[in-house]
């Protein structure tokens, strides 16, 4: 079987082989069998994303002929009515191409047609998310939030699983009408859209073809889209709480901004054709910002249609922010790592909804839970480890796994993982008669715990705490524990910290670009304005910025070794890299440095003064261990606003500093009397 075929094709082929071998074993002995299977595979319809050369659009008539241009690539033998079904989407703004239902043979025939560039089977992209504003230094009465008018007049497009329009975060009270440039529409009833929720559309043609999804409004089925949209631009909702915890005013990062919702996900996976259609519509509708919390493992940028579409959005002045992914803590697990996308990792905040596990020996370990019953006694109860029988399914408290274990009236320790949802583990404990649960992290989860709405008294503790609790259980014949509920606690001095699940770099497609760009609250919360941990107030008055224009990416892309055609897919125009001044990836004017260090390397950066006209900056550095860093010049003098100055940084190995690890990190800062402009440094030793 050829690589890259969809799972359903692999399953179909396997079942076909089993059927034939079982009922007609003699057929499998000749070449006729393999030939028939290959023919069946090639004749199966599946959705392809097809890139074609751009049609010149100098006139309105030519723009209207775009769909006809795309249809011209469809098989000639099919009827017009069949073509209607075969063409899934004709894209206008973010890629030059279309999505269509095709067979492998039809795609092969299409490759010989003038104007064809590439075609690939559609991918299914997985979804990747109250006190956060205060933690980020955002205050309603003063500062950056107020100075920015709380996002007033900004249109944020959210590509996700839809929205619940009745949610109080989407009230239009006190919000002015959207700007005149807005061209979108609302597929809910007129009364459900307002000046906050100005648009809501559903793109499900791809899902209909591959998953049998029927036409439906952009209603949120699982809460993910409502969560991301309300975090981005939810209105002020007073007296909010979760099961009596985290009381206060719930609000998004841009509470006066407008929201345009594009439902492109139907269940946990999002058909790529629908995602591109939503992105295409967002650009057409006139959004200012696009927020995407879905994605796939990294591939070269020209094969990543979110990267391709985001490049087009960036060319039109639209800011695109994407989740880094939830595949941590392992290296090189990022999604959405193109440098023209703001790639956002997840961090903790300083609020916990705390519950402690107090052991019979007096040791106490803090954890988290949303369910904080006031009537649960703080007395010691028998403590048992669910994995005491040696069965892996019992250790993770899988369904039915505790039937033969005496847990009645006891505190049950369950391991996280095993494909079992955290709350479902508590359900198994409760069904088996357990009184309470201690949920213990796996090693890869580290110290990242979550406050869940458990179905019984519980606390979720770290991996390190779990090891000590297990050691205590093994040290005595009568282990006991109590759960002590402490409610909402603010002021964790160790925050922010990277969450265990947040995807890590280095970047796969371009290791010379440091990703994620920034981190923002993503554990029990999420932020829209998300370099380092996000600091909105300082970002509003940075002093210096690192500007990159769309055309600046062309030499960078050529420097990655992409062909003219591959760069053209991203640039949305013909490119000849032989006529471009190709640059190494580390030379892109990025506000950070990611260096694979062998021989000494020198990179240049250009900063633009957006602070006081007459200002000077001096460089300081925290040098990565095992590295020498030299900056030239070490002072920058500006005499006007928007003036640009260039500096260079040389990185070399310092062998006298002793043995170093595989990675090292540091940063350099340009410091004036008012501003401090930092650039992270990441070193990977060759």
What characterizes the major β-sheet?
A: 8 strands, parallel
CATH topology of the domain at 540-685: Immunoglobulin-like
**Number of helices, counting only DSSP H or I runs of 4 residues or more:** 18
Radius of gyration: 28 Å
Taking strands numbered 1, 2, ... along the chain, how are they ordered across the largest sheet?
7-10-6-12-13-14-22-23
CATH class of the domain at 540-685: Mainly Beta
> What percent of residues adopt helix (DSSP H or I)?
10-25%
What separation lies between the terminal Cα atoms? 37 Å
Q: Determine the strand fraction and express it as a percent band.
A: 25-35%
pLDDT below 50 for ≥5 consecutive residues: which ranges? 1-39, 130-146
Average pLDDT for all residues? 83
Structural class: alpha/beta
Tell me the number of strands.
32
CATH structural architecture of the domain at 540-685: Sandwich
Describe the 3D structure:
With 686 residues, the protein is of the alpha/beta class. Among the domains are: 44-54 and 84-123, Peptidase S8 propeptide/proteinase inhibitor I9 (Alpha-Beta Plaits), CATH 3.30.70.80; 152-220 and 257-294, no CATH class; 351-490, Glucose Oxidase, domain 1, CATH 3.50.30; 540-685, Immunoglobulin-like, CATH 2.60.40.2310. The chain is 22% helix and 27% strand. It has 18 helices and 32 strands. The strands form seven sheets. The protein has an eight-stranded parallel β-sheet with strand order 7-10-6-12-13-14-22-23, with helices on both faces. Strands 16-15-21-17-18-19-20 form a seven-stranded mixed β-sheet, sandwiched between helices. A hairpin with a 4-residue loop joins strand 15 (351-359) and strand 16 (364-368). Helix 11 (272-285) runs parallel beside helix 12 (305-315). It is globular, with a radius of gyration of 28 Å. It starts with 6 loop residues before the first helix and ends with a strand. Mean pLDDT is 83; it is low at 1-39 and 130-146.
